[in-house]
Specification:
The longest helix is centred in the C-terminal third of the chain and has 9 residues. The protein is α+β, with helices and mostly antiparallel strands. It is elongated, with a radius of gyration of 22 Å. It has a 4-stranded mixed β-sheet, with no helix packed on it.
């Protein structure tokens, strides 16, 4: 393989800042900070706003638009019978 054309593919520590969840995976993401894993390794750190541990879809706390007080049903009843 040619030297100097490939990205730096390495282990990176990702941290969800909303709840502190940490996981390590391999990535090419550019980082300026380092962090310590639970087993003591010092790795490049990338901070996430949302991960699978905090996203409403994956945690089961997402609210469906159809179940929000019948607003969708009211809209359909009022405007759904428009002449075509």
């Amino acid at each position: 393989m040619r030297e100097g054309i490939h990205p730096d593919y390495r282990d990176v520590l990702f941290v969800d800042v909303s709840n502190g969840f940490k996981f390590v995976t391999r990535s090419c993401v550019n980082t300026k900070e380092t962090g310590t894993t639970d087993d003591g390794r010092e790795l490049p750190l990338f901070k996430l706003d949302t991960s699978s541990e905090s996203h409403p879809f994956y945690t089961g706390t997402q609210k469906s638009v159809d179940n929000m007080g019948g607003r969708v049903e009211k809209f359909r009843n009022r405007y759904g019978k428009v002449a075509r």
